């Protein structure tokens, strides 16, 4: 039978007298774990035969013998020699990328051993501004998670000349959001890294507002690790960065005093390379963190969350205890909350997981959050009162018209002949793209793509009801082998309606269907339509986790049937409009190139052949 979770994350100052009384035995523990192998991430040891006494939401005593702190009213769990480790923490995560609401995300990850995280809600913020961030924060507070939110730094990710977003966040908005409580932990990834380096007033003042509030600024630096501007970026106070794809990226950031976040998302697999900074180069791990960044609901269902990432790091040759440190204490220390979370020590929040078998297997069989058993053997054992998402979050897609075939015809500067065009080439399992020069035919002033070259069209349509603009481009590497189109309102970070396909009629149909259902993903062929509604901000579904995961999986299967075999293709495609990651992207304003010189709109065509 499920129990009702009692939200009770008290501050240490408020509950300290009861903790001390329990530790000396005058007050008895509410919950106790006995006979466990303690994973001590502070000392880097495994301590056998240990016990843990919990009073309310926090740990009162850790030792070999806690009989003085328990009585017949204490709930005692016999660990039977299982490993007890701190609950896992995700040091950089966009909940919206799971397509789940915060409550359903919590229900998905708590049984997997994730008890907290640092969440950058810049997806909903690009759609709804501070109103979107506020409702996600409020919903997070109803869950058992130790959920810390970051205010989006880049709405838009660079400036309005490169893309159209549904909102704007500047220094004043950052300062306001950081005043909402201690669980507003800092500034989300500062993607406009050129703006920071070259003194953009908005970016500088946003970071200043964060530092003055005593909070933390996260980074997003995609120039090469040996670029002279990385120390400039670090000088701003940005002290953590997840855009690490090589071991050199990790090493250089750590040498500058930054925390290096090693990412294993659904479609970006960077841990195997970045972890070599430790396994090959011997760099100290104290400033290394494991994160997910973007992980789909189907990945949560089929692979897992932070448990999967920790297991993967161990498989690369990292000692199990070290890998656990990268997903617990290191993460807590990076954000200045190690007094509360990240370790099993007296005074800390009682966020604890029990693991069966070998530690390297990361087989979570019980999860305790805030001193309460919330999941056991992969199943939630608690529930909590639902959160009412505001109505305005369900009404965010405003195209203002029906799309037609003409909207997807690429007009050429010549009547007939051939042109050299810039194509966006996708890179499997990576966030970056490649700029490729391709030869395209022109007939009657319109580009006619040859499917044998694995080329298709991409269109981005402004969907916030602001200007109705759109732009078209060419995509390479999708692999479609039948007439097909996919439309989505999940298109980082401005989340305009993005339509990709090789048939203009199907592209228009897919785009209209996605708009009609107020957001989501639609895959269309001549034989079938596969829909994945995401009505909350056009990004998330209010449906249960398992339902959402299966709907997400259905889109993946539809893409495969159309010839696209890219791993987690939908997530890869959702980043093709993100104008801050090299080398080339498409926004509603046009084709955007990201280079060592900066970020600029460039023409689609290069030359007449």
TrEMBL record:
The keyword DNA repair belongs to this UniProt entry's keyword annotation: no
Catalytic reaction annotation: adenine + H2O + H(+) = hypoxanthine + NH4(+)
Keyword line: Hydrolase, Manganese
Cofactor(s) the protein requires to work: Mn(2+)
Superkingdom of origin organism: Bacteria
Listed EC numbers: 3.5.4.2
Residues in Amidohydrolase-related domain copies: 84-374
InterPro entries linked to this entry: Adenine_deam, Adenine_deam_C, Amidohydro-rel, Metal-dep_hydrolase_composite, Metal_Hydrolase
Chain ranges of the Adenine deaminase C-terminal domain: 433-595
Enzyme class: hydrolase
HAMAP family: Adenine_deamin
Family, similarity comment: Belongs to the metallo-dependent hydrolases superfamily. Adenine deaminase family.
Protein name per its UniProtKB record: Adenine deaminase
């Amino acid at each position: 039978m499920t129990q009702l979770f009692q939200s009770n994350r008290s501050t240490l100052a408020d509950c300290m007298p009861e903790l001390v009384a329990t530790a000396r035995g005058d007050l008895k523990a509410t919950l106790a774990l006995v006979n466990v192998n303690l994973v001590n991430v502070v000392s880097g040891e495994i301590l056998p035969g240990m016990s843990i006494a919990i009073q309310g939401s926090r740990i009162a005593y850790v030792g070999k013998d806690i009989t003085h702190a328990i009585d017949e009213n204490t709930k005692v769990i016999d660990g039977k020699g299982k490993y007890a480790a701190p609950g896992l923490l995700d040091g950089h995560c966009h909940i919206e990328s799971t397509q789940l609401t915060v409550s359903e995300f919590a229900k998905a990850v708590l049984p997997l051993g994730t008890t907290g995280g640092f969440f950058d809600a810049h997806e909903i913020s690009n759609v709804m501004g501070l109103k979107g961030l506020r409702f996600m924060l409020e919903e997070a507070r109803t869950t058992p998670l130790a959920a810390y939110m970051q205010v989006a730094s880049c709405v838009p990710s660079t400036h309005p000349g490169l893309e159209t977003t549904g909102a704007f966040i500047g220094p004043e908005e950052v300062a306001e959001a950081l005043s909402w409580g201690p669980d507003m932990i800092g500034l989300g990834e500062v993607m406009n890294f050129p703006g920071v380096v070259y003194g953009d007033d908005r970016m500088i003042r946003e970071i200043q507002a964060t530092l003055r509030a005593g909070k933390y600024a996260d980074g997003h630096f995609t120039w090469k690790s040996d670029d002279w501007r990385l120390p400039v970026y670090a000088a701003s106070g940005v002290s953590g960065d997840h855009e690490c794809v090589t071991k050199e990226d990790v090493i250089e950031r750590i040498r500058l005093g930054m925390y290096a976040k090693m990412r294993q998302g659904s479609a970006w697999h960077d841990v195997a390379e970045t972890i070599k900074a430790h396994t090959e180069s011997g760099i100290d791990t104290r400033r290394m963190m494991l994160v997910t960044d973007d992980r789909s609901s189907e990945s949560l269902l089929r692979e897992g969350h932070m448990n999967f990432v920790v297991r993967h790091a161990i498989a690369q040759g990292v000692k199990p205890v070290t890998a656990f440190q990268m997903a617990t204490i290191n993460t807590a220390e990076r954000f200045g909350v190690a007094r509360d979370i990240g370790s099993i020590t007296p005074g800390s929040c009682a966020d604890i997981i029990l693991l069966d078998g070998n530690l390297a297997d990361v087989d979570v069989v019980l999860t305790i959050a805030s001193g309460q058993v919330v999941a056991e053997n992969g199943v939630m054992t608690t529930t909590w009162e639902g959160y009412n998402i505001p109505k305005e979050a369900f009404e965010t897609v405003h195209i203002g018209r029906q799309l037609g075939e003409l909207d997807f015809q690429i007009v050429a500067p010549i009547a007939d002949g051939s042109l050299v065009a810039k194509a966006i080439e996708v890179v499997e399992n990576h966030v970056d793209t490649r700029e490729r020069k391709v030869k395209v035919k022109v007939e009657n002033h319109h580009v006619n793509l040859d499917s044998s070259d694995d080329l298709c069209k991409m269109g981005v349509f402004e969907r916030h009801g602001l200007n109705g603009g759109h732009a078209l481009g060419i995509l390479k590497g999708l692999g479609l082998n039948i007439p097909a189109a996919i439309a989505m309102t999940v298109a980082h970070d401005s989340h305009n309606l993005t339509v990709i396909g090789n048939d203009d009629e199907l592209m228009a149909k897919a785009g209209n269907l996605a708009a009609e259902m107020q957001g989501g993903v639609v895959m269309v062929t001549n034989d079938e339509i596969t829909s994945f509604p995401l009505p909350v901000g056009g990004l998330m579904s209010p449906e249960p986790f398992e339902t959402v995961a299966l709907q997400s999986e259905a889109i993946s299967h539809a893409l495969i049937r159309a010839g696209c075999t890219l791993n987690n293709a939908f997530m890869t495609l959702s980043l093709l409009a993100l104008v801050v990651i090299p080398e080339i992207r498409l926004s509603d304003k046009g084709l955007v190139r990201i280079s060592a010189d900066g970020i600029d709109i460039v023409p689609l065509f290069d030359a007449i052949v």
